[in-house]
Design brief:
The structure is a homotetramer of 479-residue chains. The first copy, chain A, contains 20 helices and 6 strands. Chain A has 479 residues and is mainly alpha-helical.
């Protein structure tokens, strides 16, 4: 056997130079595939025996040997050896050390090219499942906090200017809605990865009578890939998973930004748990939202991972090229980062204190109910555009008087439009926050009954519990 | 009415400065939403009338007026006015000019925030449909050329080194396989975009008794969005579509790279049609594959579009922020670019001449059948790893003799292993290319029957034609 | 002459297909090079005549003709024709139309490859000059507003938590410091672009006795490029300029973010001029900081431009490849975007109202002077780490009492450390904001005298005015 | 002292949750700053003593202690403790363990914010120096190989189509030219990083009478930063360095692409040393250019690092935000990657065998001297555009005859233009490659004398050796 453990045949006259060896080795990061590599090899060996390509006894020795090698490596009894380049060669070399010739038959009918593609797809599928679980946990956390604060009102913002009041619950459930889409995308990426490339060989399958479908089934894949050149030469499944992860991270960055804003002295809407805050080495009074900032900051990281991955794939001729080795680290980094950020965000959401009074004070200033007056005028028959303009004038007067709209002198109100009667009960009622919110009673709207319906719908989806009928749920369009 | 056509109420004391006006206006690019904007407004107006919010006669005037305005703008009888900021205000202002007060009622119960979200989702859905059609056209083109060259063999490459022979058809169908996944991703992105945000208002829906579900149905949406803050504040559907488009573009870049390589004098595998080549202003002998290079080069563009889009979304607090205006151009650019590249690539694929002789010459040099000898030794019972090593020695000898494997002196062959008999018919047969390829008869493999089966399967999928039974097709894993 | 005006010789049997022609043409965007293209051609023609390569009369006809063609195109008397592919061929074809055979001699000794490289470097140099001017204008605007508010104090923040008071001027001058570095980077990028590639031919220079150095000098280049393959095949100068522009845009995005925050009701630190704000189509009370948001949002655009550019260059073999055509649009887009954002930001800075009272109120809450007490204790000999810990305890007590540090009951203060004497004048003085700030009297520090020195230093640099001696300026390190 | 070693004062009631602690800690990567952190602390301590802020004896104890702590950590006698969060706190805590109270005085007058900014700038400066050295080594390697192959000719390519012959040396020196610019950019980035932020405190400097200029000088900085908020809150120096590194990596990717192409069987221009190649686990005949592929593939990585970095900085308000912690890893990764790729590329360049015969064969096919005929006709007075067209016709005839231009039947040649005389000595001489190349005798051109001049110029720059006068060197433009 050649000194390189197989990949370097006797065709070669000399070994690699040290700098090349160091750059070429991937075991520093592909050790993460160990579990999947061994699972793939076991399925492969069993199939080889079932097809009569290797003796059944050899397959049995291989399976037992692989499990032992895996345990040795996992528990550190044996270390990964960079001289053996990658996880595949490490496992095979250890296997041969343990069981001799049967181990030399394991690689029959396959190549590292289809082997690593298989490992990576198994990894991607498992990572998608993990992320889905973490996303759902955060969605439930948001539902829990939303339910708790269903009747606390805060300013809804556009352009970071106070716009219209909404229940805190509605604001929190906006993130649930984003995460529900992230979940679907991550799930789809995992599902699309779940085709078995094993049996594609180095690029042109094999002459041996292997059974690709059986291997796929035993590994839990949904089917087999359709073209051997493509199967070993593409990593689009990794890009798709990182795309979905990056969008999820962007959604987390938006929530993190709001936690940073809300925990500032200026907003004062929440107090993050000290468990998620740090102090200053110099300024003893500081309590800083470091974790929210890190979640926000890590967005660049995941976006960069996507760029690394896709740039690496650009313009590669078929089929396998070594460049593909560079697709592993960004994939792992993106998955790890988003998983960690989902966990930390769930922790922050569950432990933050919401200051309902501070929010209520904020709702009271900034003419947040101006649009109610527009709708009131529209109800009286004024075309919308004119109503909008009348209330614009009203706001201008209020600003000049430095008061909120409902504190404008009655004459000023009447001066803008004869349709406005400051003494009218209906007019005065426009300025009651809870009623104003509850009037916004359309699917997806902030009325508390609608938000409660949403919480129930999501809970039922996530926990399988039955839910009461709620008109807000029937969102499907009927042609 | 205020001078700004509505968006700037009398709350304002003065207009925008010219530099701000110029940066703020979006009509230079959002004119592309015209068709969708008018469709959305028509559905909205009809619903307002059906719900009794505006008079039926007004709705009728609005519908007729909108169609006229659309025609005026499309045919250039009226120009878009940047002073009116965006397509929405242009349409509304023209409508009011035409029909007066009924036009002023159109914006009742909605905001530009939910309006533009609706327009963009309609655009994304339509763009996805277009891209799917263009992808399928290219897949059919690949099938056609593959079928034509089912029994022409070329070197399959890994690391751009000749590896094993494959039918040209198999190589072409590798791209079909990539595009099939791209199609699925683009389709899913379009489907996920197809929820109606209309009725979400500026951020908090409306107090008016609108019927969101009816509007969604009349616009062909699959349902309505679940949270008003999210509906106006996110553009993840655009990012998802651009993600899918970027992956498709990367696949095109790989094919383009191969067309550039193959049409070089060194490869000489194809001659691109002069319809897709350019000359040199200085060197009269040049015929350059400019279009393949452009397809390759435009990858950076689409990757950059994705980065622009997702970076813009990072860390934005809820709900709508003006930054979202910056998500339109990268979306349009990515869709246009990939659509154009799909078209040009289809043209190049359909018109290129494939030089089968040049490919055959390439297959004959480089020990492409060395692995056949390994499998032969494995068949004789030698463990794979040892067989691999024996053939490595054989190749080394061939290199020293500067011959191909099958031209090695018999003694040299025997010297490597007693299992190798240069006079054996089976041994000699290893070196017949067609037989070597056809022995690789597993699902997804290069055997001609398998490739023919793939072509038939894809054709049937794309044209709906029934297809003959083919064992290569049953790729689903059975547990 | 061939129908393509030169680039397509009679070597070709047929023309381009329409889709290829449309993708291949660049005149839609490279018309921007017109001015530089004509300048380059004039310098080239004059040199050809001076070297005796073409008749002097022809050169004169060419120069006159080119100026006329330029005017025709600039004033729209003649339109750019996409059939002629690019700006170069448009100009040459129009020239030949005008002056006949002498025009056919213009392209002697050059190629479009060195021609477009020359045009782009001229463009890059000019763009750098423009950006430097716009950056300096913004720096002066910041100086002006800083000087105006030298003795207004606001909270300095870390982690968006109030940290220590600083003069508003100091905060504004932080942006000046960033922009000064941006200026240097943009300037360096322009300078590095200023080498003349003309004379590099298509890739291998020319056999004709041209004078590259003379052409370079007449175009204002600092020298000539050193390698013809490199000169036509690289666009790193464009990437460098866009890198510098992207960093500048990131700095603008930080200022824009602060303008958005500061103009929120929660901060209330500034009121942006209505000239840089927009209203809402639905909510008449809204005054939104749209322009600040756009400046922030356009960061994604410029980052995406850089990614497009550099991804396009990845792994291109030498020398010229058509992919390089794709480097133009991101370059133009980045330059235009940053230029516009610099202008708008300057406008916002110059016109915003700063609410000193709101800032003063913010400074008064949040224990911003806690670190003064630490320094006080250090002054009394307590090791810093212990002092930090004592004041941490003090802040905890203040939080429990819901008061600021200086309002803590004297006993509580004494209880933390015997070194603290609430009756001590020195202790009480710690809590005077202006004195606390002015004690921070180190180079780069917030003491008002230091900030004033900085303003003077920058003004002198930008306006050339002499400046008074100021100790704060001597920032150079002396070994 | 508080349990967190200082950063978490007694202001806090509880510690961090485990997930937060794990995400918050940076010592996993910022251990790389150890050397710079200790250097910075030593300079700081000495200055504190010199200014009388701490006792001289304490400073001495600190310096001795720091050197011991550094050695302990470097040699693994003490491990970095993630509970202590970062390298700064690890060092300080170990110092206090060793020397007690004097150690508690080290942090006097500084903050981790200015400390980490200092460390990172010291790192960036050192990294720039390292990269410059590695770039220069590769430039010298290119010069060496170029000199060796000054009179071997290869096809120069545009669009990967054979264009005109050039010396291999000229092609190699094109990379030298790119690297020379990379060197300048990396150097400038290092120089711009070399300003000392120490003394900027957490954000607002300090009240203590520190001497920033002395510290800067003792650390070898060129000066001090101008604004404390900016100094702790920006990382543009890191982005600039990564920008320069990314461009360098793109240049390496182009060379790597060519090495992959050239070592293919189709080109056969070079044979890479087996020291930089790998084999196949399945196909024993393969010798793959893995290292060249990795260098190419790692481009995505460095581009992604830049994106991560700059995206992280987008829209952060002043001054320090925890997001900045995320700027470290991409910086390290980019520097490490480019450094490793420079080393490996140097190795590949120095060890590859260049096959001059294969190159010569390639030059002989593809009408590479067609442009010589154009110039010949121009010399006879034909306007360039017409000459270009005549030779286009000539090439068409040659293609039809399937011969090279100089093998066209004389009648065919004469038929194209009366100016062409196939019997003319001057005409025949056009087709001698060496003469054709040497006629291209302009600065930056491929004539062998010019290339030799370039090699000499670069060598002299890099080694300081005097060089002979060479007219090709005087590339400076004289107005």
């Amino acid at each position: 056997m050649s000194t390189d453990g197989g990949a370097r045949s006797r065709r070669f006259g000399k070994g690699m130079s040290p700098d090349a060896r160091s750059m070429n080795a991937s075991v520093d990061f592909d050790w993460r595939l160990l579990e999947h590599d061994v699972a793939g090899s076991i399925a492969h060996a069993r199939m080889l025996a079932a097809q009569g390509i290797i003796p059944a006894a050899d397959a049995e020795a291989i399976v037992i040997g692989l499990l032992a090698v895996k345990e040795d490596l996992e528990e550190g009894r044996v270390a990964f050896d960079p001289e053996l380049e990658d996880v595949h060669m490490n496992v095979e070399a250890r296997l041969i050390e343990r069981i001799g010739d049967p181990g030399r038959r394991l690689h029959t009918g396959r190549s590292r090219n289809d082997q690593v593609a298989t490992d990576l797809r198994l990894y991607a599928r498992a990572a998608a499942v993990d992320l889905v679980g973490l996303i759902d946990r955060l969605r439930l956390a948001l539902c829990a906090r939303a339910e708790e604060h269903l009747d606390a009102f805060m300013p809804g913002y556009t352009h970071l200017q106070r716009a219209q009041p909404v229940p805190v619950a509605h604001h929190l459930m906006a993130y649930e809605a984003m995460l529900a889409r992230d979940r679907a995308r991550v799930h789809d990426a995992g599902a699309r990865a779940a085709e078995s490339p094993l049996g594609s060989g180095a690029l042109a399958a094999t002459t041996l009578p292997i059974d690709r479908v059986a291997v796929a089934a035993s590994l839990g894949f949904a089917g087999v890939t359709h073209n051997s050149l493509d199967a070993v030469g593409d990593r689009d499944f990794a890009v798709e998973l990182v795309s979905a992860a990056a969008l999820c991270q962007v959604h987390l960055s938006r929530l993190a930004e709001e936690l940073v804003l809300w925990s500032s002295q200026e907003f004062g809407f929440v107090r993050l748990s000290e468990s998620y805050c740090s102090g200053s080495s110099l300024m003893p009074h500081k309590v800083n939202p470091d974790l929210a900032e890190l979640v926000r900051g890590k967005t660049g990281r995941v976006v960069g991972d996507w760029v690394s991955l896709i740039t690496t794939l650009k313009a590669l001729p078929l089929s396998y090229n070594k460049d593909l080795q560079e697709t592993q680290e960004p994939l792992y980094d993106a998955v790890d980062t988003v998983a960690a950020c989902l966990g930390v965000t769930t922790g922050m959401v569950l432990t933050m204190e919401i200051d309902r009074e501070a929010m209520a004070r904020a709702v009271a200033r900034g003419h947040l109910l101006a649009t109610e007056v527009v709708d009131y005028l529209v109800g009286k028959g004024l075309p919308f555009r004119q109503a909008h303009d009348v209330v614009g004038g009203l706001v201008r007067r209020a600003e000049e008087h430095r008061v909120e709209l409902d504190a404008l002198p009655p004459d000023e109100i009447r001066a803008e439009s004869a349709l406005l009667d400051p003494d009218d009960e209906g007019f005065r009622a426009l300025f009651e926050v809870a009623r104003a919110v509850d009037r916004r009673d359309v699917p997806g709207g902030p009325a508390r009954a609608r938000v409660a319906g949403e919480i129930a719908r999501v809970r039922a989806e996530l926990t399988g519990a039955p839910r009461a009928e709620n008109p807000a749920d029937s969102d499907e369009a009927k042609p």
